[in-house]
Design brief:
By secondary structure, this protein is mainly beta. The chain is built from 2 helices and 12 strands; from the N terminus they run βαβββββββαββββ. The strands form 2 sheets. It has an 8-stranded antiparallel β-barrel.
């Protein structure tokens, strides 16, 4: 099953993304300041129809960030699946970190039988819990594009960097 989930870049499963860009890590204090005006992080933004494949609402409080992520993906022969993930992570100087086992997942799949939807959620939970603790940082490349780079508890990079955009209001999810 190929599925891409972006929860602030922490959840990348399957699909290919941009190769690791060269650039500079953005301090979290800059990300927090920017989030006051643009709290919605968009994955795979399409300027043509003003949509994202995933959208994350970021809310910072004290040393934590609460993230409410929504995404949609199409599964072969079954159609659209809408997935919501909610979690809280600790904010550090240049990253945010957390335990994947604390992620709350729900799925809605109108063309799936309920037991199939439950299996999708169960598989995602197993995949996420297997990731353990992880951290993500934002990186700005030499052309000003922003990417999320995720690392596991050993510091190894998890998947490719994922380009993201930030908006004041949520965008529609692509269908």
């Amino acid at each position: 099953m190929k599925l891409k989930i972006a929860i602030f870049g922490l959840l990348l499963i399957g699909c290919a993304a941009e190769p690791m860009p060269e650039g500079q890590i953005i301090p979290m204090k800059s990300i927090i300041a920017d989030a006051r005006e643009r709290p919605f992080e968009c994955d795979e933004y399409s300027i043509d129809d003003d949509t994202c494949t995933g959208i994350v609402e970021r809310r910072f409080s004290g040393g934590s960030v609460f993230m409410d992520a929504k995404l949609q993906d199409r599964f072969p022969n079954t159609g659209l699946v809408s997935i919501t993930l909610k979690t809280t992570f600790d904010v550090r100087e240049t990253s945010f970190c957390g335990d994947y086992s604390d992620v709350e997942i729900t799925a809605r799949a109108p063309n799936f039988l309920p037991h199939v939807t439950d299996r999708v959620v169960d598989q995602m939970e197993r995949d996420l819990k297997g990731n353990g603790v992880g951290c993500s940082s934002y990186l700005r490349d030499t052309e000003g594009r922003v990417y999320v780079v995720s690392r596991d508890s050993s510091g190894a990079i998890q998947g490719p960097a994922d380009q993201v955009w930030f908006f004041a209001n949520p965008k529609e999810l692509s269908r």
